Amino acid sequence: MKIKNVILSIIALVFVMNTAMAQDVFGKWKTVDDNTGEVKSIVEIFKKDGKVFGKVLEILNKEHKNDTCKECPGELKNTPIEGLVIIKNLEKDDDEYNDGTIMDPENGKEYKCYIKLEENDKLKVRGYIGFAALGRTQYWYRAE
Prior knowledge:
The protein is mainly beta.
């Protein structure tokens, strides 16, 4: 009877830990095209040196797999989009991460950015100029 309780306790602990870990911005996210609703890429949100970054892990459309950032500034010009760090230097502020930037690899433009977990598997990504009210929001969905 004691072994059964220990096993059930371990299973419950693992379930709680997995649920708690899933309720954070870190991990892999599916980006969605604003116009078509098609999933475009997988971006990994990760922490480095106390700040949060986002890197394009994979472009899902085979026709665009080898696309480069033609409009990116400086040394990033013509680098592959797959592998490109597009979110940089976000810092945690209560329930969102802000004070960083996001780059649109289609036009090479960089915007101020904040991200916030809307639901367990739904991430709000907002890029803006000046004030957060002047910008564009995308929703990314957690990748399996």
